[in-house]
């Protein structure tokens, strides 16, 4: 990559980080203006258009990055599982750490999942599909079950996790610990139910 291309990528990254930094429990992406993001990035508003067509393109980039960050963390969790430990407990611990460290990234995914922009809703749906597909791959391999059963189990687990994540955003540490314990039990019930069902189907 040449110096010019490096500088362009660095400036693009600055705009993305500037947008993320302005998100909060009280501030959604839809409330941000191009001028605010450019000012936070230390750029003139006209410079914005050298990197993004409009604010919607920037927002879609944030959604993609948020989903990718979560998937990468869960991949790391599966690597930790390979070294020994409870699959469900390690996965939940990793997910809750993501909520604690990047609450506004998760808020972005939640808000845009049911927002007014069809493009944003589709982007979040794709990220959830990617997340579910990776979990399906893992369950299919580890449980030696059919793709369809692994996918149904993954969908149920992802639904519970995302719903709990929304609750966790406004909880204190004690409440989050109790929530993690509840999630662990719920996911174990799903896993045991899936295992029992698979065994019954083989009979």
From TrEMBL:
Which NCBIfam families does the annotation name?
PRK11202.1
Look up and give the organism this protein is from: Oceanisphaera pacifica
Q: What SUPFAM superfamilies does the entry give? A: Homeodomain-like (SSF46689)
Which InterPro entries does the protein's record reference?
Answer: DesT_TetR_C (IPR054129), DNA-bd_HTH_TetR-type_CS (IPR023772), Homeodomain-like_sf (IPR009057), HTH_TetR (IPR001647), HTH_transcr_repressor_FabR (IPR050692)
Name all HTH tetR-type domain ranges: 10-70
**Can you say what this protein is called?**
HTH-type transcriptional repressor FabR
Ranges of the DNA-binding region feature: 33-52
Cited Pfam families:
TetR_C_46, TetR_N
Organism classification? Bacteria, Pseudomonadati, Pseudomonadota, Gammaproteobacteria, Aeromonadales
List the keywords (alphabetical): DNA-binding, Transcription, Transcription regulation
Gene3D superfamilies in the record: Homeodomain-like, Tetracycline Repressor, domain 2
């Amino acid at each position: 990559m040449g110096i010019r291309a490096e500088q362009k990528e660095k400036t693009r990254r600055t705009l993305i980080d500037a947008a993320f930094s302005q998100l909060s429990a009280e501030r959604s992406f839809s409330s941000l203006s191009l001028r605010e993001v450019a000012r936070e990035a230390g750029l003139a508003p006209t410079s914005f258009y050298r990197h993004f067509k409009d604010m919607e393109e920037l927002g879609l980039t944030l959604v993609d990055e948020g989903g990718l960050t979560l998937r990468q963390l869960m991949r790391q969790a599966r690597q930790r599982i390979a070294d020994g430990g409870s699959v469900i407990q390690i996965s939940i611990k990793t997910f809750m750490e993501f909520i604690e460290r990047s609450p506004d990234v998760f808020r972005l995914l939640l808000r845009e999942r049911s927002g007014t922009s069809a493009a944003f809703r589709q982007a979040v749906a794709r990220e959830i599909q990617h997340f579910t597909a990776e979990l399906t791959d893992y369950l299919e391999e580890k449980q030696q079950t059919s793709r369809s059963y692994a996918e149904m189990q993954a969908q149920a687990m992802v639904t519970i996790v995302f719903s709990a994540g929304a609750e966790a955003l406004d909880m204190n540490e004690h409440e989050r610990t109790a929530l993690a314990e509840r999630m662990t039990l719920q996911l174990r019930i799903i896993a045991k139910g899936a295992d029992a069902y698979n065994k019954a189907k083989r009979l």
